[in-house]
Amino acid sequence: MKPAPFAYERPRDLDAALSMLAASNGSAKIIAGGQSLGPMLNLRLVQPELIVDISGLAELKRAEVFGGELVLGALVTHADIEDGRTADVTRGAMRGVAANIAYRAVRNRGTIGGSLSHADPAADWISALAALGARVTLRSLAGARTLAIEAFIVGALESALHPGEIVEAVHVPARAPAAHWGYAKSCRKTGEFAHAIGAVLIDPAAATARVVIGAIDTAPVVMTEAAELFGGRIDADYKQRFDAGVADAVLAKAGIDDAAQRHIHVSVLKRAVLEAAA
Amino acid sequence: MKEGAGVRNEREFPSSSSGQGVGARLPRKEDDRLMRGRGLYVGDVRLAGLQDVAFVRSPLAHARIRGIHVPERYRGSVFTTADLVGVKPIRAVSGLPGFKVSEQPVLATGKVRQVGELVAMCLAPTRAEAEDIAASVTLDLEELPAITDMLKAREPDTALVHEHWGDNVFLETNYEVDISAALDAPIKVTREISTARQCMSPLEGRGVVATFDRRLDQLTLHSAAQMPHITRSGLAECLGIEEGQIRVISPDVGGGFGHKGILLPEEVCLSWLTMRCGHPVRWLEDRREHLVASSNCREHHYRITVYADRDGSLRGIDCEATVDSGAYSSYPFSACLEAAQVASILPGPYKMPAYRCRTFSVATNKCPILPYRGVARTGVCFALELMLDLVAAEAGIEPGEVRLRNLVRPEQMPFDNITKKHFDSGDYPEAMRRALAAIDVDAIRAKQGQGAADGRRIGVGVSIYCEQAAHGTSVYSGWGIPMVPGHEQASARLTPDGGLELRVGVHSHGQGMETTLAQVAHEILGVDVAKIRIILGDTAMTPYSTGTWGSRSMVMAGGAVATACRELGERARRIGAKLLQHEPASVVLQNGEVRGVNGSVSLKAIAHTWYRRPQDLPADVDPGGLEVTQGYKPVRDSGTFSYAAHAAVVAVNPDLGEVEILDYVIVEDGGVLVNPLVVDGQIYGGLAQGIGTALYEEMPFDASGQPLATTLADYLLPGPTEVPAARLDHMETPSPYTQFGVKGIGEGGAIAPPAAIANAVNDALRPLGVELMQSPITPHRIVEAVLAARATKRSAA
User: Fold this and answer.
1) Could you tell me which CATH class the domain A7-53 is placed in?
2) CB contact under 8 A, A260 and B287
3) How far apart are the CA of B210 and the nearest CA of chain A, in angstroms?
4) B591 in a domain, yes or no?
5) Chain A contact set for B52 (CB, 8 A)
């Protein structure tokens, strides 16, 4: 379990990194915390010609609030968020998610940008941030573009990143004062990837609900207008109105044929709804 | 029949007052080295000129090899079976009637029969470069249908793992005692039960460093091995060289569990390679190789019927057991150890008048199955104890009550059961009663009646087993296999400065033998444990032994150390008498001194005189000296029987399939405990592995024979947060046949947890109509069963 040979660069600024990526014609991989890429290299599942280590890029470590929106540089670690070293506009929602990612050693090194770029369906941020309505900024030498998380994650281990492009920052909108947050997942054991994730942001005052069912075999199911799960409308009694049958049908439509798997996903989602209502 | 030295319990041991002898809770001596990271494992061995090996392994489960293509630039660095002229395949045979022999070429020849089978050996200055070479080798394989289901493997017209056999069965056995007598029993329960294929997962994988010493004309093999002497015998057979030309050194070993109890094809390959290329070579098993290529364990299937009277008294068991043995029998022997043992151990610690068991050891296109901690007993305990809970439900009595009704009773000891297993001693019902009381079944029943506030259901489960350990010549000679244990030997030597060196052929890979064997020697000689060195793991420095397996080391090597130390003490006593100018009959050896009426002389002074001042000894001194080798066998070698009752309380979420272990109790009787602290550690470690079997560990295969859990993200092992703080209770019924009354206990912790936990889960879910008969009990299996039960109820309503 040793990686195939590769060249290694550790650029000092983002422009240099983008130039290296552009010059590599898609044969480079970016490494930040290395918590997923490291094992994949060792297993020779990826054999890039060049590794661009972005861990020295100070501009990707910033965490700032602009106009009520939190902007997290791609290199912010899960532990930074868990420990409260970054500002928070979600009233603890992100902190709670971060604290339960894998185990502490992974959280110390793993980054939010790396997790999104890797697009593992079972990872926490792609589901949690989709529910929170976050967006990502992608940058290449040609410029920047911004996508909603649900548009960025296109499949299992598949994102909208183009060759030469890098996740630069994550933009998290402030959680509305009346919005309820619920996040639940089921893992075989502590620190393991989840086999079911439910994330909900429900605002009875605004009658809106964002609901995510994650850790399925493909990109999470993101319902930005999730009233159908609650009998057609979002109200203060949404907990009672949660319709497991509709959620089950949504998962069946998403291609999950196994009834037990669907049942676990729906049960986890229900747990997230109950947590939001608590 | 009693041990010559007499049966004693711990309070009678003279040295226990020093706090170092048999029965002392002494911290492990080796931990000073191991816990500071100062151990020396195969991976730490550094030899000048060392190069690394990576293997090209079969990507297919079953295929004919049409060609192996090596790029021009790597010719000379890649070796295939065509290069290994004169190297014989590994043959691990049994003399049991009908056994079919598998020949395992050390590098694949003609066919590959499992994913991960060695095809070519690649040599380079570093492992990464060796892996680059391996990646450049291409195989031309003609894929054949893979045999992956042990039950289908016995159907006619199925593909064959070994064509010339005519079928896929290594061995079929039949055992019957009047099953017809049970058939009219009022309670008859029939089920299919199975346990998953597992990986043994020691912290340290296998590893080999081979080098050849031209001066000694000797191959030295550093290998993470449980039985270095057996490895040497097997190597000599495969390589066609004399055993004296081979030295096997097994340094610190990071866990064995059976995984390191075989001769590896890699060991043969690297031995050949170092002789061929003239410099040291190394291969270290990586975790992926461990998971997909080297060996598995535990895959059992039972079709079982239990007959009982209305009150739960057992009338008989009828069983057909099948074990997936994989493609090859590993050396010294693996193919039928599990299945054939199932027939003799399935009755467990219970009395019954009728019994029938038919077993099949089936060849499949998977890696060999090895005896893993607990060996066949974990599967057997799972099958039988799950069935007893069903009998209890049919009889309308508590599961604990069914056990108490059928367990062998203390007044029946020693007891020969229906398969002629000789139970040496013990009070099995007492262990069960203590476990039931400690877990407080009544309180759990009351809680169940109230219902769970959080939607989870509470369940309690029990299980009990017996663990035959240190079975000797009379047990193993019948197998007709290359390894039969005889007298275990130990050498004891007093050094000139009064220290003690002990040489034993067993090995320690977590068992703490550097401490416990020293305690045994201290018990006899009174030498300070700090001054006793245990030398093991090196064929050049230790007496021959079949090594460490079958929970035998404390009984066998401990007995040998005691025997050798007694003889050494006797010789020292006679020299001491001379120095004290006493008749030998009037002096005693006590607390490290020879004492007479006029004074005493220490072992240290005796050793100093013997070695350094022989002029002070009289002319007629015994010339034998202060170094002795003695052999030992228990007075009866049918094995010691330790046992334990386990009890678990779980909370199960029926909608998520999550299981939490809320409480766990173990009441263990391991005979006299040489070091209860070490025994506790053994039990805790075994429990962790048992929890793995119960809830987490599974190596699934797809229909083409591809192993699907290829990393530790897919192959789940229990971690610290999954293992509860179990409550331990010890009983100490001495074995009548062994030194000090010790019994082997190394494996027991891993035997009973799957049954106790499964019974607890089933107890929790029984009101829903759910029954789980397969390990591991995963969230998916629970939810699937819950949904199926709900559908059944709906259609009934």
Assistant:
1) alpha beta
2) no
3) 21
4) yes
5) none
CATH number at residue B548: 3.30.365.10
Domain C-terminal end among B632, B659, B692: B632
**Would you say how long chain B is, in residues?**
797
The hierarchical CATH code for the domain A181-277 is 3.30.390.50
Tell me what the mean pLDDT of segment A189-211 comes to: 96
Closest-CA residue of A relative to B713 is A192
Q: Say yes or no: B665 and B775 in one domain.
A: yes
Residues of B in contact with A5 (CB under 8 A): 128, 132
Please say which residue of B613, B632, B651 terminates a domain.
B632
Question: In this complex, do B783 and A264 lie within 8 Å of one another by their Cβ atoms?
Answer: yes
Q: What is the pLDDT of residue B16?
A: 52
Q: Which domain holds residue B551?
A: 10-39+487-632
Fold of A58-172: 3.30.465
B648 lies in the same domain as B789: yes
Contacts of B711 in chain A (CB under 8 A): 39, 43
Residues B551, B660 share a domain: no
- Whether chain A has a CB inside 8 Å of the CB on B104: the answer is no
- If one counts the domains in chain B, the total is 2
Of A4, A44, A189, Cβ closest to residue B696: A189
Chain A residue numbers touching B696 (CB-CB < 8 A): 188-189
Statement to judge: residues B602 and B728 lie in one domain: no
Who among A2, A39, A260 is closest to B128 (CB)?
A2
How many helices (H) and strands (E) chain A has is answered by 11, 14
* Facing A186 at nearest CB: one of B126, B656, B721: B656
> Measured between CB atoms, which of A189, A259, A261 is closest to B716?
A189
- Tell which wins on pLDDT, B621 or B25: B25
Tell me the CA end-to-end span of chain A in Å, nearest whole number: 47
Q: Do B718 and A189 touch (CB under 8 A)?
A: yes
Domain with CATH 3.30.390.50 in chain A: 181-277
B604 domain residue, yes or no? yes
Report chain B residues whose CB lies below 8 A from the CB of A196: 656
Residue A258 with chain B: CB contacts under 8 Å: 780
pLDDT digits (tens, 9 = 90+) for B141-154: 999 999 999 999 99
The CATH 3.30.43.10 portion of chain A extends over 7-53
Q: Is the pTM of this model over 0.90?
A: yes
The beta-carbon contacts of B172-175 under 8 Å, at least 24 apart in sequence, are: B172/B98, B172/B358, B172/B359, B172/B360, B172/B361, B173/B96, B173/B336, B173/B339, B173/B340, B173/B343, B173/B358, B173/B359, B174/B343, B174/B356, B174/B357, B174/B358, B174/B359, B175/B343, B175/B344, B175/B355, B175/B356, B175/B357, B175/B358, B175/B419
| pLDDT tens track for B581-607 | 999 999 999 999 999 998 999 999 999
Helix (H, G, I), strand (E, B) or coil at B696: helix
Q: Are residues B596 and B653 located together in one domain of the fold?
A: no
**Cβ contact A264–B287 (<8 Å):** no
Residue B208 lies in a domain: no
Shortest Cα distance from B436 to chain A (angstroms)?
28
A4, A264, A271: residue with CB nearest B132: A4
> Do residues B536 and B575 both lie within one domain?
yes
pLDDT in tens, B58-77: 999 999 999 999 999 999 99
pLDDT at res. A61: 97
Identify the CA nearest to B260 among candidates B248, B274, B273.
B248
Residues of B with Cβ-Cβ distance to A271 under 8 angstroms: 656
Nearest Cα to Cα of residue B45 among B213, B206, B223: B223
Q: What is the ipTM of this complex?
A: 0.96
Rounded Cα gap, residues A112 and A114, in angstroms: 5
User: Measured between CB atoms, does B216 come within 8 Å of chain A?
Assistant: no
Give residues with Cβ within 8 angstroms of B364, minimum separation 6: B147, B148, B149, B150, B153, B161, B168, B324, B325, B326, B327, B705
